[in-house]
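ok new one. same drill as before - structure tokens go in, u give me an amino acid for every spot. 179 of them this time. try not to just spam alanines like last time pls lmao
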């Protein structure tokens, strides 16, 4: 779709910039020598749906706490890319989910991922960390705090609605990282 809209662009998948060999970007769009990194996240709720005689089987991809952390980490990674690249013009993080609980605030009083919650209408900025009571298994590979230098509104929108069940609506979230 990007190539159809911008036929003169180049696209790199799983791009690794030379300044950080651990930073793997899902998509890098190169347009007139300028770079637009895009990070994608897709999580689903378990369901089986038949649409136009085609059967779709989606698995349960729980771990909402880690899903929120990883989405915000993508924003932080693109901010790093922005700060270290002369070619950066803008970047995007995109999350699509059929797990509607992402849109709602945490329900537990002692929620371990409260600072990472990406509920609809929230604002993400600054320093965010796991609560002190977070288990080591939950944080494995995600121990570092998230630090965002800019302000990011969390505004979910409907992507598609298959039916009225609790797994029948897909929502999306897009955040733009500016220069």
């Amino acid at each position: 779709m990007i190539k159809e809209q911008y036929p003169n662009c180049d696209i790199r998948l799983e791009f690794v910039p030379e300044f950080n060999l651990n930073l793997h970007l899902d998509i890098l769009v190169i347009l007139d020598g300028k770079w637009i990194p895009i990070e994608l996240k897709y999580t689903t709720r378990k369901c089986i749906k038949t649409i136009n005689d085609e059967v779709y089987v989606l698995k349960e991809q729980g771990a909402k706490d880690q899903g929120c952390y990883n989405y915000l980490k993508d924003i932080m990674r693109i901010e790093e890319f922005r700060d270290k690249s002369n070619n950066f013009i803008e970047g995007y993080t995109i999350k699509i989910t059929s797990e509607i609980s992402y849109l709602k605030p945490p329900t537990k009083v002692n929620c371990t991922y409260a600072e990472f919650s990406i509920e609809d209408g929230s604002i993400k900025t600054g320093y965010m960390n796991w609560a002190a009571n977070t288990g080591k298994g939950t944080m494995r590979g995600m121990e570092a705090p998230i630090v965002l230098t800019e302000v990011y509104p969390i505004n979910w929108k409907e992507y598609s609605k298959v039916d009225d069940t609790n797994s029948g609506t897909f929502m999306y979230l897009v955040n733009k990282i500016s220069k």
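The mean pLDDT is 92. and btw Strands lie at 10-15, 25-31, 34-43, 47-51, 54-58, 90-97, 123-128, 146-153, 157-161, 169-178.
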